[in-house]
Amino acid sequence: MDAPDTQVLNAMLSPALFMTATGSLLLSANNRLARVVDRLRVLTDSGDGIVRGATSLNRPEERLHHIRGMIRLQQKRANIILTTVTLLYGAFGAFVGTSLGIAVNVLTNRIPPAIPIEHRKRMEKNLHRRAKELGYELRKVETPAEAEPQPA
Questions:
Q1: Residue 118: CB partners within 8 Å, gap ≥ 6?
Q2: How far apart are CA 66 and CA 75, in angstroms?
Q3: Residue 65 carries which DSSP code?
Q4: Contact of 17 with 98, CB cutoff 8 Å
């Protein structure tokens, strides 16, 4: 293999590793969601038994109040996990898209275009203008290659 092919392979491999990691996180989140659902079922069955009077527990009103609080907590946990799963699926899709985009670029022998210099200069000018309006001053930061040599 020559160097460009190796670079393409490496570029496509990184999103694949991220997809594997995201898949593991998705599996873990779905397992947690299953445990929350199981806990909700147990709590609702307990609450249902108390409401029907099918239990001989002491202070059923206090226990029912506690069960309702636990159900609300489990619902919050479920909502957090569902949000997490949604975001993880979005990340997974982004990694798949990145990998496919690299493959399409290689197959079509096209290099993705960079930001044109004119557009970049216009963006910098707008940034400086906006910073000045807000009362800030932007200065160029010298890189070590641009800095003057320090006397020894």
A1: none
A2: 14
A3: H
A4: no
